Amino acid sequence: MAAHPQDNPVREDGPARRDRLPEQLGPVAPRNALSRRQILSCALAAGAGLALGRAARGTAAAAAAATTVTTPTADSLFHLPLITKPIPATGERLPAIGLGTDKFYDSERAAIRDEIARMQQLGGTVIDTSADYGESEGLVGDVLSSLGIRNRMFVATKLVAGGGGFFGSFIGGRPSFERSLTRLRTPRVDLLQVHNLDGVDTLMPLMQQWKQAGQIRYIGITTSDPSQHGDMVGYMRRYPLDFVQVDYSIANRDAAMNVLPLALERRIAVLINVPFGYGSVIEQAESRRLPDWAADIDVTSWGQFLLKYVISHPAVTCAIPGSTQTRHLVDDQGAARGRLPDEAMRQRMERFWDSA
Predict the structure, then answer these.
(1) Whose CA is closest to 331, among 2, 90, 8?
(2) Which of 3.40.50.720, 1.10.1660.10, 3.20.20.100, 2.60.40.10 is the CATH number of 17-27+40-354?
(3) Taking the domains of the chain in order of start, what are their residue ranges?
(4) What is the pTM of this model?
(5) Is the CB of residue 79 less than 8 Å from the CB of residue 43?
(6) Rounded CA gap, 323 and 103, in Å?
(7) pLDDT digits (tens, 9 = 90+) for 243-299
(8) How far apart are CA 95 and CA 81, in angstroms?
């Protein structure tokens, strides 16, 4: 079965703004937008250190280029309102940036505990893991239990029908789900997803039973492979899904042609994996200068630029970039603050990206 890293493993469009739904807009731009831009410009000059940290996740060439790019810290953003988006099935709102965990290993336990604690302090709630992410589920369960914050977080995990999977867990179906509950130290999960569409027809009746029994709140399916988007669309039409999780980034817009429009039509929430393109997108970005006009959408780093593009799509509920370091998580969480790009800005971002 193909691996499904739902986030960056290295790192760890239409109507005018006034015509969009409130949940698609983010906070309304204040009258003193110029002053805010001046503040963010000051932050741009102050944060070159974070650029070095991000570039360390990429190639040596990207790291060298980033030494001359003024990519700042996100600290200046957290006084701005938190961007949340609704789950269409219920109206429950989620912060627009979560956390992917496919690179969680026990050797990084202390750092991961600090990272999750900081995420919760900053307002993030969505943590996405999987039965076949090795030590990830157990680490997430231990950390949430030790911090006493399980009930404040939105925990999503995955299973397959026949075992195997990313790390070769060789357990699928009901035994996999029961093990997930044990590892996560919880009687229920917020979202259970069929990983990589592996056994959707087999698992869907079971998942619906578990949902009725209160062991899961929402049901979903996932892929990180554009070649599976057609199959995903078929399942979206066949089953009453609450969520889909799909690959989407400024450099990979395939999902915007089929999966995302159908999610809007059928009122299905969307999680976005690999928003940094397995590391290649962030590397490419950090070899360039962040445009000055990024301050107009409260962006102070390339990571935030890429994430705000993703979460500003009307169909997207939450993006789940991966991280095992608190400084990276803080920068990512900054993308869940302030203003979202409107359609005109999204097109400008695409043109800028495509011009490279």
Answers:
(1) 8
(2) 3.20.20.100
(3) 17-27+40-354
(4) 0.81
(5) no
(6) 8
(7) 999 999 999 999 999 999 999 999 999 999 999 998 889 999 989 999 999 999 999
(8) 11
